[in-house]
Amino acid sequence: VVQDDRLHRRPQLHLFRVNDRHMIIRMESPEVFYPGQETVVVGSAEIEQLKRVALTSPKKRARLCTHQSPVDDLHEMLIVLPHDAYVRPHRHLGKAESLSILEGEADIVLFNDDGTVRTAIQMGPHGSGKSFYYRLSQPVYHTVIVRSQLVLFHEVTEGPFRREQTEYATWSPDECDQPRIDQFLNSLPSE
C-alpha cells in the first residue's frame, strides 16, 4: 500500500496493481474504500485484496464502493464478508436495495418489525441452484448470514448516504455484544 497525495487533496492509496494498471483508492475507514478515478475496473486481483482486508479488519468486512462519494445518487458496492461477520439487522428508510451474490453462499433473513423471521432467502452465485439476486423495495429489517468461508456480493442502493436513513432493529444485539450476537444468530433458521 503506497500513499499518493498528488492526484487529490485527500490521501490516495495504490491498493491494487494488476500488470501496469493501478487502482487508486481512498480509504474512508479500515474497511470502506472509494475509487480515485472515474473509470473503475475490478478483476480477480482486486477481489483477492478485498478478501484479505475483510479477513483482517476489526469489523470483519470490506467494501469497495464503485461510486465516487457518499453524496452520489447511485451507490454500487462490492462487499466481502467472512463467515464470522455479523451484520446487525437494519432497514433503509426511503431507499430500495438490491444484492447479487458473486461468490460464496449466504442467507438473507428478512424480519417483521417485532423481530420474528419473515423469510430466509438462501443465496449463492448464478449456477449454484440457489437464488443469486434479490431486491427490497420497502424498508424491511434484514441481515446477511454468511454460510461459506466468505461471501462476495454486489449491492446497489440509492444515494446519497445519510446515516439517519439506516435504522437498526432495537431487538437485535449491538455489534459489540458478542454473547448476545451468538445467541441471536443461533436462534435464526439454519440452512
How would you characterize this protein structure?
By secondary structure, the chain is mainly beta. Helices cover 12% and strands 42% of the residues. The chain has 2 helices and 14 strands. The strands form 3 sheets. The protein has a 9-stranded mixed sheet with strand order 1-2-3-4-5-6-13-8-11, with helices on one face. β5 (62-65) and β6 form a beta hairpin. The longest helix has 13 residues, at 44-56. It is globular and about 45 Å long.
Overview in brief:
By secondary structure, the protein is mostly beta strands. The chain contains two helices and 14 strands, in the order E-E-E-E-H-E-E-E-E-E-E-E-E-E-E-H. 12% of the residues lie in helices and 42% in strands.
Classify the beta-strand content into a percent band: 35-45%
Strand order in the largest sheet: 1-2-3-4-5-6-13-8-11
Assign an overall shape: globular
Number of helices: 2
Give the beta-strand count: 14
**Cα-based radius of gyration, to the nearest Å:** 17 Å
Give the overall pLDDT as a whole number. 87
Structural class: mainly beta
What's the helical proportion of residues? 10-25%
Question: Strand count, sense and closure of the main sheet?
Answer: 9 strands, mixed
Reconstruct the topology from this structure:
Layout: E1 2-4, E2 12-18, E3 21-29, E4 32-35, H1 44-56, E5 62-65, E6 74-82, E7 90-92, E8 97-103, E9 106-111, E10 117-123, E11 133-136, E12 141-146, E13 150-158, E14 166-168, H2 178-187
Parallel strand pairs: 4-5
Antiparallel strand pairs: 1-2, 2-3, 3-4, 5-6, 6-13, 7-14, 8-11, 8-13, 9-10, 9-12
